[in-house]
Design brief:
about 350 residues, alpha/beta, 10-stranded mixed beta sheet, two-stranded parallel ribbon, 11 helices, 14 strands, globular
């Protein structure tokens, strides 16, 4: 049996070619694209201005990806919402919606599971099951927008998975999300996080997109970074920083260093001094993240005083730095925790 084409992952040009191949008029492609990416239709049947025969043909020839909400958690503290979605093949992924003064920001997953093995992250404990298609990344945003009734203004690809380990689908997703005829989100309102896949950073630089690249740095020396992030053994810190420099030069967009502060591991004054030396030449913004405790890893958050001292030292060195505001502390807010708890529950059934 021939595998159906995933219509939601097609660009406008590809969809036009497909519709013409069916013997339909060109304007039908625009109608279908609008139903998919503007009206966020849940099925071909909802596309009521299409002839029934065409809807039947589309149903027969194309796969229409939608995600099923399995669980939604809402924080009583700040309204942050965590979503667990079921993919068409039964795997589950998670996404988060955070409400800020500037709008609604959604953090999405790019893979079901992750193979990067970062020591402080719950997402990687079960390994990688598969990468997500462009449609499955888009669907997280589309369903959250429908379920919340709030237009999404910012997107962060920083949930489960390594986006640059899924490069082609990521790029297609970015084109669809920011192109005309859909949500048409500004590229400047999109952040893509990577743990340091050097070839992917260099490829992304050549695309000349205006998205923000966030490097999951987490340590300012090669030795310490290797102890926290196995991928650092493949792409050493000088290589990663060189790739970030290329990204900055090619796009004019400064890189963000994501730095998870782990109590007693990477939160000393010397760590701050070394981090400042790395950030200064790149004009990098540093985002400090007091680590979410992960039971299996036995990592703990630094005390508030140590976090503040770390931040103050960087600022005194002229580094632009923020402390990530903790959102959804009363729910499974940390990356991978909701998915992990759901899978553990299923395994006990």
């Amino acid at each position: 049996m021939t595998e159906k084409t995933d219509i939601k992952s097609l660009t406008r040009e590809e969809l036009l070619e497909a519709i013409l191949a069916l013997g339909e008029k060109p304007f039908r492609a625009g109608q279908i694209y609008s139903w998919i990416h503007e009206k966020l239709a849940g099925s071909f049947e909802e596309m009521t201005n299409l002839p029934r025969k065409l809807r039947e043909t589309l149903e027969r020839e194309y796969e229409y990806i939608t995600l099923e909400p399995v669980e939604i958690q809402t924080s009583k503290l700040d309204g942050t919402q965590k979503y667990l979605f079921r993919l068409p093949d039964g795997l589950v992924i998670e996404s988060v919606r955070m409400q800020y003064k500037y709008g609604s920001s959604v953090c999405i997953s790019s893979q079901a599971g992750c193979r990067m093995g970062c020591r402080f992250c719950a997402s990687t404990i079960g390994g990688l099951e598969r990468s997500l298609r462009a449609s499955e990344m888009l669907e997280q945003i589309y369903r959250i927008q429908q379920l919340s009734g709030q237009r999404v203004s910012h997107v962060v690809v920083m949930g489960t998975g390594e986006p640059l380990d899924n490069y082609d689908n990521l790029l297609r997703f970015l084109r669809l999300l920011t192109g005309e005829g859909g949500l048409h989100l500004s590229q400047r309102n999109i952040t893509v996080s990577t743990c340091g896949i050097v070839p992917g950073i260099l490829r992304l630089a050549r695309e000349h997109l205006q998205i923000t690249l966030a490097l999951s740095l987490h340590a300012a020396t090669q030795e310490k970074r290797c102890s926290l992030m196995p991928i650092a053994g493949k792409y050493e810190l000088p290589q990663v920083l060189d790739a970030c420099r290329v990204y900055f030069e090619e796009t004019g967009r400064r890189v963000t260093f994501e730095y998870s502060l782990v109590g007693g591991v990477n939160d000393t004054k010397e760590d701050a001094r070394q981090l400042a030396r790395l950030a200064e030449p790149l004009y990098a913004h540093v985002n400090l993240i007091p680590v979410n405790p992960v039971t299996e890893r036995k990592f703990t958050q630094p005390v508030k005083k140590d976090v503040d001292n770390f931040k103050n030292y960087l600022e005194n060195c002229g580094i632009n730095v923020t402390i990530r505001r903790e959102m959804g502390r009363d729910i499974d807010g940390a990356c991978g925790q909701l998915r992990k708890s759901y899978m553990e529950g299923r395994s006990q059934c």
